[in-house]
Amino acid sequence: MSPSPSPSAFFCLGLCLGQVAHAQRSPLPKPSLQALPSSLVPLGKPVTVRCQGPPAADLYRLEELQHGKYFDQAVLSIPVMEQRFAGRYRCSYQNGTRWSPASDNLELIATGVFNKPSLFAQPSTAVSPGEDVTLRCKSQYGFDQFALYKEGDTGPSKTPERWYRADFPITTVTAAHSGTYRCYSFSSGLPYLWSAPSDPLELVVTGTSVTTTRLPTEPPSTIKEFSEFRGRWNHLFVSKGSSTEPSRNVTARPKESDPPPGLALQSYTEGNLVRICLGAVILILLLGLLAEAWHSRKKPLVPRVRAIHRPLPPLPQTQKSCQHGGLPRGHNRGP
């Protein structure tokens, strides 16, 4: 005869059944829906719409609300963005026989449909903390909707219906307002087809602390090695008695008057370049002198021929004319 179940066993069984019934009656958590890399998609660029739910989900359904389409899948990949893909999306999942609540709506926006507007700041893009500034977005077309985006923010700042332009006032500026802004223009009749983004506008809040990177006070190892090599090179020329340029006396400044590290490094580099050029010129001159001396030694010496002293030719003898008729001696007259 088998033993009968204890009261504690019945209590545990009832507790488990109660938890299962409560779990079946409690609503499922709603999924999340996002567009990667962004919900602002330029025409022609890819985008992925992803629905994320619990691991135990049996089926996903992705809906496009504007045209009443749905897809029984969790991921929708769009390789090339077109105007027809722009609109509102939402998703849900099925767990057993129950459906989860729908996710928050996702607005997938196609940008670049119209020409970009212009964005400028009044009175200036440089603002002191506590002052006011207005960012104005202006279009050449009669759009009645404008959106302002700041890099790093998740959503835009939109304005009520206005024509051709919209003002986005920022009161009591703080350091958090500094950054890069862009604006878009579109029509309320086509809320998911936007213009191209405006040129970026950099808003600078002056007087705020900015983290700066200090240059090293000691030059890199390569510069130090070159400095040592340059010193040995200059010492070589001085020891040989080179007189192309007199040596310069360099007086070290005290530490109190040292220039900033950036300027010191710059002047140090410029001085090295000047010394390199000077050393190269001296080396070229010395090589030229050595080459010329070597070339002159290789030329054959022309033997010098001593002049031969030859006797002068004898002077011509003058013939003396004979007296008495002018006939030379040794001739007799005729009979």
Describe this structure as you would to a colleague.
With 335 residues, this protein is an alpha+beta fold. Among the domains are: 87 residues, Immunoglobulin-like, CATH 2.60.40.10; 91 residues, Immunoglobulins (Immunoglobulin-like). Helices cover 23% and strands 28% of the residues. The protein contains three helices and 18 strands. Strands 2, 4, 5, 7, 8, 9, 11, 13, 14, 16, 17 and 18 form a twelve-stranded mixed sheet that branches. Strands 1-3-6 form a three-stranded antiparallel sheet, with no helix packed on it. A three-stranded antiparallel sheet has the order 10-12-15, with no helix packed on it. Strand 7 and strand 8 form a beta hairpin. Helix 2 packs across helix 3. The longest helix has 38 residues. It is elongated and about 110 Å long. The C terminus is likely disordered.
- Principal-axes geometry comes out as elongated
Q: Output the helix-strand order.
A: HEEEEEEEEEEEEEEEEEEHH
Tally of alpha and pi helices: 3
CATH topology of the domain at 115-205: Immunoglobulin-like
CATH superfamily assignment of the domain at 115-205? Immunoglobulins
Taking the sheet with the most strands, its summary is: 12 strands, mixed
Distance between the termini: 213 Å
CATH class of the domain at 115-205: Mainly Beta
Report the average pLDDT across residues.
75
| Uncertain stretches of 5 or more adjacent residues | 210-226, 235-265, 304-310, 318-335
